[in-house]
Write a structure and sequence with these properties.
- There is one protein chain.
- With 84 residues, the chain is mostly beta strands.
- It is globular, with a radius of gyration of 12 Å.
- The chain is built from one helix and seven strands.
- The two termini are 19 Å apart.
- A hairpin with a 7-residue loop joins strand 3 and strand 4.
Length: 84
């Protein structure tokens, strides 16, 4: 039950995300808010370097993913906020 509670509790430490191909996020996130839509290339926790691209996301959308990196290559969305 503790895990479930932590996933639905309010975000404690949101931060602006600057997509970068070589640098991980300052901390793993439990979700990404996409302010201005487009594509978002991410590396999820446990993906061992594999990248997944979420295509054609609309403005003001949310991706429920535990991610460690948002890549510049393949990301066209902007105004991204990481929620830890």
């Amino acid at each position: 039950m503790k895990n479930w509670t932590s996933r639905v509790s309010p975000c404690r430490a949101p931060f602006a995300v600057t997509p970068d191909d070589s640098t991980n996020l300052p901390r793993a996130v439990r979700g990404l808010y996409i302010g201005t839509g487009g594509d978002v290339a991410v590396e999820g926790v446990g993906n061992d370097g594999d990248t997944l691209v979420y295509k054609n996301l609309p403005d003001a959308s949310y991706i429920f993913i535990q991610a460690v990196k948002v890549l510049a290559t393949g990301t066209t969305a902007t105004d991204i906020i990481g929620e830890a």
